[in-house]
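All the exercises in this workshop are built on plain-text protein records. Sequence and backbone structure share a record, each on its own labelled line. The question running through the whole workshop is how a given chain folds. The record below serves as our worked example for the rest of this section.
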Amino acid sequence: MAVLRAFLLAVLLIVIGFIAYAWWNGATPMQRVSAPAVQTTGTSGAVDVSRARERGAELGEEVAKTAAVVREDVGEAAITSKIKAKMALDDAVRSRSIDVSTKGTTVTLSGTVRSNAERERAVRLARETNGVATVVDHLEVKP
């Protein structure tokens, strides 16, 4: 732990040193970095604006698809967490022996329970959770 603190302190001091150096020289660090000049006229260095727009649109679509997948995964994780929390707070259900997985609005329960009453309670807790449309019961009763 002490080594980590020392490392973080060293990194912080280095960053402060760079900022102070730039300030004393009258510029921010970002002003010192300049992009290379790009030739936009003539035949050899012409920029294809239509191709750049097409590529930008393609990248935008990819980002939108990725964002939708991330949003769905976060929603599934939230549903799983809600169900596991309900089970952990319920005295009739042994939540550590039950696995909960979510795909879309379908929740799958697997693992072992001690009785049919515990099985029914676990399934009921999952069904009563917001965002759940279907519960698949793969629970095994093992006293």
User: Anything to note?
Assistant: Strands lie at 98-103, 106-113, 134-141.
